[in-house]
Specification:
mainly alpha; 9 helices
């Protein structure tokens, strides 16, 4: 244990976040939370109305749960994200037009981000770095062409 270098909390959180579809799960959970906060009917009224009223609380509650499951169990992200987008679209009918469109859009966006996340993908290289690498490679190639054949073979040995 003493041989391992200590990492700060921020670095540990970055490492944890990099191994899961963090933004997708967070947006899905925030979308469900926003829809829950925009519900105007009290629970007494909802229970009196029946299943239709209960769905107004059930769907966004499940959205929050699925968002958390995406964060803490990323191996099942495909199932959770497909279910999350269906629930988010279902809130259009059951919960004040999906939390006045904001919760609906957050839920759909988060589900799509989670669905499209790839676990073992290399980090993207910016266009500027790719151009620099290409320029350096062409410069090296032109320098090798300019050198006499003897110097090239001596440098390789």
């Amino acid at each position: 244990m003493a041989d391992r270098p200590r990492r700060g909390a921020r670095a540990a959180f970055r490492g944890w976040r990099a191994r899961r579809p963090f933004w997708g799960g967070l947006l899905l959970a925030l979308g469900g939370g926003e829809i829950l906060l925009t519900e105007k009917a009290s629970l007494k009224v909802v229970m009196h109305i029946g299943m239709q009223g209960l769905a107004g609380y059930l769907l966004p509650g499940l959205m929050v749960l699925l968002g958390l499951l995406i964060l803490f169990n990323p191996a099942q992200r495909l199932f959770y994200s497909i279910t999350g987008v269906l629930l988010a679209l279902g809130t259009w009918l059951t919960s004040n037009l999906g939390g006045f469109f904001l919760g609906l859009l957050l839920g759909v966006t988060g589900s799509c981000l989670a669905f499209g996340w790839l676990p073992d993908q290399e980090p993207r290289v910016s266009r500027r770095k790719r151009r620099r690498q290409a320029r350096a490679a062409t410069e090296r190639a032109t320098q090798e062409e300019e050198l006499p054949e003897e110097e090239v073979t001596q440098g390789a040995v």
